[in-house]
Design goal:
By secondary structure, this protein is α+β, with helices and mostly antiparallel strands. It has three domains: 210 residues, Periplasmic binding protein-like II (D-Maltodextrin-Binding Protein, domain 2); 148 residues, no CATH class; 100 residues, Tumor Necrosis Factor Receptor, subunit A, domain 2 (Ribbon). The chain has 15 helices and 29 strands. The strands form eight sheets. Strands 3, 4, 7, 8, 9, 12, 13, 14, 15, 16, 17, 18 and 19 form a 13-stranded mixed beta sheet that branches. It is elongated, with a radius of gyration of 30 Å. 40% of the residues are buried. Bound molecules: 2-acetamido-2-deoxy-beta-D-glucopyranose (3 copies). One 2-acetamido-2-deoxy-beta-D-glucopyranose binds next to loops.
């Protein structure tokens, strides 16, 4: 089980190395100016739309683009929380308005949350925690709106330029695992391990093995006892010159080994068991080493830029963007095998889900509409991150998001809810006559239905929208953006359409005005 969660764990450990800044700059030429943007409004006050960002480059980029669209196209102020969440549960509690307290855990004092949206949450294994948070309020707090469009992927990668070179010079298709069979001499396209500066490698002796028992499965699958050492009762990879684990097909002649790098962080070498299995089972001549750090700053990040080698990577991500990394195609992911620690198939992709505060329905239904329409493809995200300058500064990522929006208008335009396709809680409103209307006209926009009315969904030739209707006599509505009217309480009435509040039956009896709860009590008392 541990090994099956190691995928998400790697991603989780990478969380939080980027902090988001709000630049206050304008990106799009026809942006709604800041002075004309509105805030969200509840009974307790006004506030910007709060955005929670998990800190990985893909989420920082997609959140920056979302924030630009909400501010400049939808016209609502956005606040991006600079805190760096530790995990998805943290996001649940943040959206619920809770604070983490070192001594007493999560403190949820019933405060209204100022965080409303997270664009890429990893939900698997987190359902129980979500249910716990939703149980804190009748009707729930968080809604999972479905996928943001792309999934996260991980695996062995090779650069686009090496793929081109091997195809031209050897007719080898390096994007495909079969091309790495030793019979086809794939190592000719790569650096030799003797050419790699070993001072950039983390020696094998320092590799922490996340789940040593998984190496039992390596032995079972391959019978390759020569590839293993025994230490403290468990197996370890047996290393060549302190730095390289050699796969069986190049162990006798290391000039035939393809150098491959994975990252070593928090003391662990990532996916060593998986890479060893794939190399041995598919007869890939490979020498596996570890580079320090999985994020920026370590040798892991720099080695694939320096040498022609394979590298373990994940995405969409900014780290190796300049190499145009291509994920090597292995057999289609077999989850049942992965649960048994058999890793010869590809690792499953991880869906990213959008979380939204339930009250967004009332506060900003057009934002909810935008969230439901978002459909980022992994290629879009990579393309966006590819616009970044040479650094990983959040302001550069904001610029990358802005450049992507400027050059991909057709894609995001389809995500913007039509100005007069209203959502539940809203109604069509004419800017020309300053009144709510029952059909779309040139100047029609959407506005929250005022007290005394409710929002009804309707369809016309253009599609679905909503209109505000007055509450019927006998019903009333005191709130904005309601979708129903409430029946009057016993003893109260609303004699007119569009009532916002209640009247009591008042009868003059012996020159005293009396309030009665119902007509029958009136009859009884008189
Ligand atoms: C944590 O909670 C305790 C009481 O539950 C409180 O006294 C303390 O100030 C809180 N600490 C922080 C950092 O909020
Ligand atoms: C190897 O790398 C180290 C540290 O990065 C550097 O000091 C050294 O000069 C390099 N050696 C060679 C031969 O390039
Ligand atoms: C090792 O492999 C290289 C490249 O395939 C080859 O040129 C060399 O002759 C081999 N050496 C031995 C000892 O087999």
């Amino acid at each position: 089980m541990l090994s099956t969660v190691s995928g998400p764990l790697l991603l989780a450990f990478l969380l939080g190395w980027l902090v988001v800044v709000s630049t206050g700059e304008q990106c799009l030429p026809y942006a709604i100016p800041p002075a004309e943007r509105r805030s969200l409004q509840s009974d307790t006050g006004t506030f910007p739309l709060g955005l929670w960002v998990n800190g990985n480059s893909h989420d920082v980029g997609v959140s920056a683009a979302f924030s630009i669209l909400v501010e400049e196209i939808v016209g609502i102020h956005v606040f991006t929380d600079p805190r760096r969440p530790k995990n998805v549960k943290h996001a649940f509690y943040a959206i619920a308005g809770c604070e983490e307290n070192a001594t007493s855990g999560w403190v949820c004092e019933g405060k209204e949350s100022r965080i409303h949206v997270m664009l890429s949450a990893y939900m698997l294994y987190n359902e129980d925690e979500l249910a716990a948070v939703n149980r804190m309020r009748m009707g729930g707090i968080i809604t999972v709106l479905g996928s943001v469009g792309y999934s996260l992927f991980e695996g062995l990668h090779v650069s686009q330029s090496l793929i081109a070179k091997a195809w031209e010079t050897q007719g080898l298709a390096l994007e495909y695992y079969r091309s790495y069979h030793y019979n086809q001499n794939p190592s000719a396209a790569f650096n030799k391990i003797s050419e790699v500066n070993t001072s950039d490698l983390v020696p094998c002796a320092e590799w922490g093995i996340y789940s040593p028992h998984v190496l039992d499965m390596y032995l079972k699958l391959t019978g390759d006892l020569d590839g293993l050492d025994v230490a403290d009762g468990s197996f370890r990879p047996r290393c060549h010159q302190q730095n390289w684990w050699l796969s069986p097909t190049c162990r006798s002649n290391t000039t035939e080994c393809i150098p491959c790098i994975t990252c070593v962080t928090w003391g662990y070498i990532w996916y060593v068991e998986e890479i060893m299995q794939k190399a041995a089972v598919f007869s890939i001549p490979m020498a596996l080493a570890g580079g320090s750090g999985c994020g920026p700053g370590g040798s892991f990040e720099k080695l694939p830029l320096t040498y022609d080698m394979l590298f373990y990577s994940w995405g969409p991500d900014i780290t190796f963007q300049s190499l145009q990394p291509v994920k090597i195609i292995f057999p289609v992911s077999n989850q049942m095998e992965h649960e048994q620690n058999i890793f010869t198939s590809a690792r499953a992709e991880i869906d990213q889900e959008i979380l939204a505060h339930l009250d967004l329905q009332q506060w900003a239904p057009e934002v909810l509409g935008l969230l439901k329409n978002l459909n980022w493809q992994a290629d879009d995200v990579s393309d966006m991150l590819g616009h970044h300058a040479s650094s990983m500064e959040p302001s550069d990522i904001w610029q990358a998001a802005c450049t992507w929006l400027q050059t991909n208008e057709a894609t995001w335009k389809s995500w913007i809810p039509s100005r007069n396709s209203c959502y539940a809680g809203q109604g069509m409103y004419s800017e020309a006559t300053q009144a709510f209307v029952q059909e779309r006209q040139a100047e029609t926009i959407c506005q929250p239905c005022p007290p005394g009315t409710y929002s009804a969904l309707v369809s016309d030739k253009i599609g679905d929208t909503a209109e505000c209707r007055q509450c019927e006599p006998g019903f009333r509505q005191a709130s904005y953006a309601a979708v129903t009217c409430d029946p009057c309480l016993a003893g109260t009435f609303a004699s007119q359409k569009g009532s916002t509040s209640l009247s009591f039956y008042r009868f003059r009896h012996k020159n005293v005005f009396m309030r009665f709860q119902s007509l029958s009590t009136v009859a009884h008392r008189m």
